[in-house]
Amino acid sequence: MKNFNFHARTEILFGKGQIEALPKALAPYGKKVLLVYGGGSIKRNGVYDSVIKLLGENNFEVTELSGVEPNPRIETVRKGAKLCRDNQIEVVLAVGGGSTIDCSKVIAGACFYDGDAWDIVLDKEKITKVLPIVTVLTLAATGSEMNKNAVISKMDTNDKIGTSSQEFVPMASICDPTYMYTLPAIQTAAGTADIMSHIFENYFKSEEDTYVQDRFAEGILRACIHYCPTAIEKPDDYSARANLMWASTLALNGLTGAGKGQTWSCHPIEHELSAYYDITHGTGLAILTPRWMRYILSDKTVSKFADYGVNVFALNPDEDPYKIANKAIDLTEEFFKKIGIPMHLSELGIGTEKFDEISQKLDRKFDDAYIPMTPQDVKKILEMCL
Amino acid sequence: MKNFNFHARTEILFGKGQIEALPKALAPYGKKVLLVYGGGSIKRNGVYDSVIKLLGENNFEVTELSGVEPNPRIETVRKGAKLCRDNQIEVVLAVGGGSTIDCSKVIAGACFYDGDAWDIVLDKEKITKVLPIVTVLTLAATGSEMNKNAVISKMDTNDKIGTSSQEFVPMASICDPTYMYTLPAIQTAAGTADIMSHIFENYFKSEEDTYVQDRFAEGILRACIHYCPTAIEKPDDYSARANLMWASTLALNGLTGAGKGQTWSCHPIEHELSAYYDITHGTGLAILTPRWMRYILSDKTVSKFADYGVNVFALNPDEDPYKIANKAIDLTEEFFKKIGIPMHLSELGIGTEKFDEISQKLDRKFDDAYIPMTPQDVKKILEMCL
């Protein structure tokens, strides 16, 4: 186990009706709030009205930034940072999913940065000071509500890049599972694929004695597999929504990656796909993951895949490890199909045209991955996804 | 799943050599440090020297309080609170296991309380302000390094009582697994029993849809069962020590109890045993737990015990649930025996003399437990432990 620092300082206020705690959660930071959200979903499901009512009743001064994109753009960050400066904002309130929270984080940092906001995406060392961030989560997926990460897109150069800062970690996050009752099935599915991918990225590593972390990882995967079909079939099943929501937060708050090293594999490839084609992050991950698994299955990785099969899918540990591993990968792919994710890039209108460009952009990116990959490897995996 | 707040704000600095981060961890709070520790073990294993050297080199002013008891006494708390006031202490540094950390927490609160320190043990509402606490952990057991709890004893009245405050949660904890290399085997065993008991107390609850929490709980139990025998056989096995240490922190930082209610069962009984006989907490828990399990096994609890057997001991899920449950309880008892814990109260010189008094002291305590128990029930369980 490698040394690690774990500091998930966010106060999680979890459960039905926790929105009532919002004024108290914001109060320590000031009265001037930038309210950041995406499209109209929070207006349709009543979350926007609840927030505005509570902020009004408690005399907060609200400036709004709406229209954050599913892959949030640097232009929106710039707009938010300007709003913060112009209105002496004291705390940023993100109401939405990972895109809205990620965008809010970079806004909260960019408002103290003199140069262009894109600089702090490219170089996290340039993040010096950050406004406190509070979130109201409406989609279980990225874990952004309890971590230091943010991913921002710059579409004119086909860049989708992650940045991070300990100061980005939200001060408090309100996680009410009922806010997911109105989610379209595909968003529930894609969000779950994102949760699972965070686990896979941390689970498939060379470190062999991160036993506690790996059992946690398997527990989260089992929760996703157990509850996602229920949440799709019965969107207002509280138990299903609650477990998926809590799973998403825990999947990427540092717990399952603690004590491990190495670069992630599917996420960087998916970021390129999104940067070129603006596809849903979770969908891209679901398409890539089983193909990447098949591509890297070897004598070096088979025992880890067998662990995965035994501990997540309850496969028979006495079988041949390759048999267990292949079965586990099959079951992974079948699960994504079952929850309704289109499992071929061609179904999203993506052909081979950009595969060379995308692969080259990732040159040397995977030198330190679980299984190092060259641009040729990436291209082959993309071809398996067609 | 019930609503919950999760706020484990502690920065965990985990791994070999993390002691070097101590000055930086203390720095935000001031220069005047109360260094709290127990017996001579940290002097024998070099941890004391490392701490003193680092504090000296970085110009901290150190006041020392040594001799914290294994079941820390209120007298020691009073002494510590006076030292804080007399020396204008700004931060309390606990170096040791749970007893030292618990004692430090109540000292940090008592120094701001005008009345007697025992008041804030009896009534946590009286805790108004608390000095910041930093810990250097030397024993994997109580999880006090990342939670709000503290247990203090008052031996003249045979009281051992828990108190808590969100302000007790340490600001930072240094967890170096190599500090456990010199632990006597029985302390490794008793510490592991304590970790497992924290899990059992949270796992055996009526809430049925805390799926993520229960898989985490099972993962921690598996880690204890997997690594404790190795740590005893080979005290300097880093992987074993690291997993046990991280398991102890995660077992009681709020994760496995989130979304659940109900009073604990074995801990309150053990607290009474310790208050009367000053026995090691973990030993008392290991003796009580399998007997409590047998006593409460019924049609109401059998499916939870079967889950435990299948997910922790990989028992065959197709067997009769009672068969799985009984086998799982047998394996629990065998495990504690295997790691060298004396499994009968009589081996500790404890007879039936105080059983009535202890049981009566717990009257109505378990009205809201997983399985409610009367003083008669408690007495029967104690008799099973003889």
TrEMBL record, chains A, B:
Domain annotation Fe-containing alcohol dehydrogenase-like C-terminal: ranges: 188-383
GO CC terms: cytosol
Domain Alcohol dehydrogenase iron-type/glycerol dehydrogenase GldA, first and last residues per copy: 10-177
Example of a GO MF term: metal ion binding
Pfam families linked to this entry: ADH_Fe_C, Fe-ADH
Keywords: Oxidoreductase
Cross-referenced SUPFAM superfamilies: Dehydroquinate synthase-like (SSF56796)
InterPro entries: ADH_Fe/GldA, ADH_Fe_C, ADH_Fe_CS, BDH-like
Domain of life assignment: Bacteria
Protein name: Iron-containing alcohol dehydrogenase
Organism, as annotated: Sebaldella termitidis (strain ATCC 33386 / NCTC 11300)
